[in-house]
Amino acid sequence: MKEISRINHVGIRVKSLAVSREFYEKLGFLFIEGPVGPEPVAVMEHPCGININFILNASPTAGPNLLMDVPEKHTGYTHMALEVSDLEAVKQQLESLKIPISGGPITIPSGATFIFIRDPDANVIELHLPPSS
Predict the structure, then answer these.
(1) Contact 78, 124 (CB under 8 A)
(2) Rounded to two decimals, what is the model's pTM?
(3) Among 15, 46, 74, 80, which has the minimal tally of Cβ within 10 Å of its Cβ?
(4) Which top-level group of life is the source organism from (predicted)?
(5) DSSP-assigned beta bridge partners for residue 115
(6) Beta bridge partners of 128
């Protein structure tokens, strides 16, 4: 469909709005609104335009991330990738914020390099530096 122009938002089921909000604010996201609606949902947005909807109905006793942390591989979205302009600066900021890197850095043949972190609900976030042109 040629009418599709971009991703509007990513929905992430979380246990606690307060905990998730604090984590994503460290990554530069701003709280917009919520909780609203029947699920309920809260919205945060990064100044670059990336929007995240937190679905606030996760069980407080939820186990491991079923898409990433169990031997059986289930279908579904496994992570979101946030493009960055300076991976070394991002790594330094993560260290100062005491956010551990859970994977990488990995450089692929095209020259792209990326690292992975986890949010408080074990959702995977890739921080992706495209190859230099």
Answers:
(1) yes
(2) 0.91
(3) 74
(4) Bacteria
(5) 127
(6) 83, 114
Place of tokens 């186990």: 63
Domains present along the chain, CATH in parentheses: 1-59 (3.10.180.10), 78-133 (3.10.180.10)
**Top-confidence residue, 95 or 59:** 95
Residue type, 10: V
Alpha carbon 53 to its chain's center: 11
3-state secondary structure the chain: CCCCCCCCCEEEECCCHHHHHHHHHHCCCEEEEEEECCCCEEEEECCCCCEEEEECCCCCCCCCCCCCCCCCCCCCCCEEEEECCCHHHHHHHHHHCCCCEEEEEEECCCCCEEEEEECCCCCEEEEEECCCC
Instruction: List the one residue out of 38, 25, 54, 51 whose CA is nearest residue 121.
Output: 54
Q: Comparing C-alpha atoms, which of 7, 23, 26 is closest to residue 15?
A: 23
Q: Is-contact 82 125, C-beta < 8 A?
A: yes
Tokens standing for residue 119: 């949010």
